[in-house]
TrEMBL record:
Binds 1 zinc ion per subunit. The keyword Cell inner membrane does not apply. Its cofactor is Zn(2+). One of its GO terms (molecular function) is DNA-binding transcription factor activity. Belongs to the Fur family. The keyword Glycoprotein does not apply. Zn(2+) binds at C101, C104, C141, C144. SUPFAM superfamilies: Winged helix' DNA-binding domain. Keywords: DNA-binding, Metal-binding, Repressor, Transcription, Transcription regulation, Zinc. InterPro entries: FUR, Fur_C, WH-like_DNA-bd_sf, WH_DNA-bd_sf. This is Ferric uptake regulator, Fur family.
Amino acid sequence: MEHKSGVAGELDYFTEVCRRHNLKITPQRVAIYRILRGCPDHPSADYVFRIIRSDFPNISFETVNRSLLTFAEIGLIAIVESTSGVRRFDPDLDSHHHIHCIKCGRIFDFQHGDYDGITVPDSVTERFSVVGKRVVLHVICPDCIKKGLSLDPVLSEKHNSAGA
């Protein structure tokens, strides 16, 4: 089933994928999925937990985290490892790339046709079964720059010499 846009289409898609994987559709799971779909960025389990508690005060962090991991396992969402080590979740399964802020850990999506067309080297495909590819840019985001956060001089020197 192809993913449909719009709230009703997203809920239909969620329901279909859950049923196909014999996953019970509960109000809590629906709410978790809606929170994810409504986030402009890539929320952590902790963020989703804090939001959902207003509607489900007795829900545990473990239930939220387990639901998110299950959603990833059945292909509803993707797991994105951030530079801060916090696992984040991406409901956008369409081809796109990521920008990671190395200071605050936020993750932003971007599109770039040239990056989509990058070929995987034979030295990789001969040894591995490639299931996807995504370009990740490590940056300091505008908000962190405004706060005066920057690379420390030692790290900056390592980045510059690695590219030389």
